[in-house]
Amino acid sequence: MTLEIFSLPLRFNFARPEAVSEFVNQKVGRHTLEVIKCDAARSRLGFKEFSGLGLTSISYGSEVRVKSPELESVFHLQIITRGTCYVSFGYEGVLLGVGDAIMLNPFELIILEYSSDCEKLIVNIPESSIQTTVLSELGCLPKPGVRFARRPVNLLRFPSLVKLFEAVLLEAGGCDAEIFGAFDFYKEVVINKILCTFDNNVPIEKNLNRPHPQIEEISRYIEKNIKKDITIDELSKISNLSVRSIYSLFSKTLSTTPKNYIKNQKLNRVREDLLNGSVRNVTEVALDYGFSHLGRLSSDYKRLFGESPSKTLRKVC
Description:
Elements: E1 10-15, H1 17-27, E2 32-37, E3 43-50, E4 53-59, E5 63-68, E6 74-82, E7 85-89, E8 92-96, E9 100-104, E10 110-114, E11 119-126, H2 127-138, E12 153-154, H3 159-172, H4 177-183, H5 185-197, H6 205-208, H7 213-224, H8 232-239, H9 243-254, H10 258-275, H11 282-288, H12 294-305, H13 309-316
Antiparallel strand pairs: 1-3, 2-5, 3-4, 4-11, 5-10, 6-9, 6-11, 7-8, 7-10, 9-12
Helix pairs in contact: 3-5, 5-9, 10-13
């Protein structure tokens, strides 16, 4: 598994580090930039605001030192996709390599030293959003506020979290702003998953993963109607839950969204049909399960199973 998918449409390409830094100061977090070594203008930055989150893919293309006096009322999830980054917290420090991720807390003094080939994904999460999630689960907040340990997690050991961010970045490229901007469903999924993955001072994991009887009813309905175009309104009707409650239910119990869950269930059935030899070609099985865009099917299938659907079919033949 790689993290190559963790990228966004570029706002800057082959730019000077100072130009990228100015944009970061405006949109991501206040900081000062010290360029240690710069041979050419090779900085890149992609940025997208989606579902209440700020998504930034960044590479300075040079050795730089970034000093962040404090993140004001925002958490940063930083994921290294290439190179290395040394993160200092006063007298403590940790070296992050490819796949490593760390949660940076608000109001902490931080220094980050980028290697010349360092690339990372930064996810801005409002402090108020994490507080709201914790309050809804526990009814109170820790006295110092929600805080994450200064210990990185390697995402390559957590494929479900990698797939979640793949889905977020994919949806960010073609989201329905009216729906996702209004309800922030993906933000809820991301926050729940982060609270369960990264060490913190909130005893919330058991609550977030507790079983829910209605998820089984919805899952059975999806399985029974897997070849149909299933809508969220249908799931709302058969479960007697609001659309918002359904998104929240999937977030807390499955760490995904209904749309992504349905798509993955369909992809699993496509794979089963290809492997058991019950179809003649990929187009036939794709249309059977409602995939009209074959290129997108192939991309999603390969991301989930590590090979194209045509390669799976060739194995059987």
